[in-house]
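Supplementary material to the annual report.
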Amino acid sequence: MTLENVLLVSAALFAIGIYGAVSRRSVISVIMSLELMFNAVIIAAVGFARFTPAAALLSGDPLTAEAVRSALTGHAFAIFVAAVAAGEAALAFALVFAMYRSKETVEITEASELRN
Amino acid sequence: MEVSTLTSVAFWIVSAVILGLAVIVVTQQNVYRAAIALAGTFLGVGILYFILSAEFVGVVQILVYVGAISVLLAFAVMFIQDVTTGSRPSQGRAVGGTMAALLFAALVFASYNSDWTSIDSITDETARAALTDGFVEVGEGDNLIVAAPGLVDADSPIVENDGVLVNSTGPLGVLLTREYVLAFEVIGLLLVAALLGGLLLMRDPENEEAEA
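Predicted assembly:
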């Protein structure tokens, strides 16, 4: 397990998500693929936090608690991404329900005419 | 940076399970089964975070993704009747497959050809010792200094095991509420805005006019 291996898994998950987002017909499936891509990004962030040292530790400046804590920047980034993904999911499903109510379908090809 | 064989084996097994379930998510015609596979993927990714020494992120993953988003997804699938529509005709699949393959190749090429800094690049002896031998914060407020462990019995960040923060939850909380406090508050605002926007979108104007 090295940083490259973690990034390989992340890239594979992101590519699967891209494939799903482009090839699926149902809007719900597209949202699922988006969530897969969010997860791929978080895996990369956590992998970087695990395997690369923080820049503050490389500078040679006097060591502070902040500098050591900055090794966790990737984790903080992961939590922010997860929060944004949660908000996005809530909003996306509201949109799906609004679309289903007006069009009686969740086919993404129908969304090009979605007005009112 | 050496990682134990057992950890590596666990990493590859969990990764294979994640990718297999993710393929099911994007190929399964029945959307409800795809949602179940997606919940499994989220759980596997949570386990991956534990393997990568990010316990708090792993717990957040299980709470937010497995606990909340998967359930939301299951509800959405059950409410909407015609969800068993499959994937697009072969043209869309070909485009998607090509895009995915190209992107995957580019990402893997970039990650294997980059010169990532590792813990060996740290020249400062103190920083290196703090990362590998353990690390304690001493003092309060702005007068914090970094000292070797054993001086004080502070329950402050301990770093050992090749530069991995042991018990990272406490320091992560300090990081979020001190260095990243503005982003933390903005995220709260964003979540409130997203939920209000969701409620607004879900409102049925015709029914409300009928009631009024």
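Chain A touches chain B through 84 residues (CB under 8 Å).
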